[in-house]
Amino acid sequence: MPITLPPLxxxxxxxxxxxxxxxxxxxEHTAPAPDATLAVLTVEEAARRLGVGRTTMYAxxxxxxxxxxxxxxxxxxxxxxxxxxxxxRSQAAxxxxxxxx
Length: 101
Fold this sequence. Notes:
Layout: H1 7-15, H2 19-30, E1 40-42, H3 43-50, H4 54-63, E2 69-71, E3 74-78, H5 79-100
Antiparallel strand pairs: 1-3, 2-3
Helix pairs in contact: 3-4
């Protein structure tokens, strides 16, 4: 959505900056802020993301392999916990794969 304000050219000239640079700065300043909502998932959503069943997901949580939090009576899995779990699993699998080769 281009800014089509005629005074923008005059403002850019007065500031001694190229009009396009001023236009970019205005757009960056007026852009909506990114959503700051924390990404937490239900156990079922986390299971779908990993491609495992609900029971397996609860077992991963119970064993401590995937961290989770309780909010009241609700169990939630931070999205970062899934990334951490996958990273840990791939690092643990790397030495095994190296020995097999």
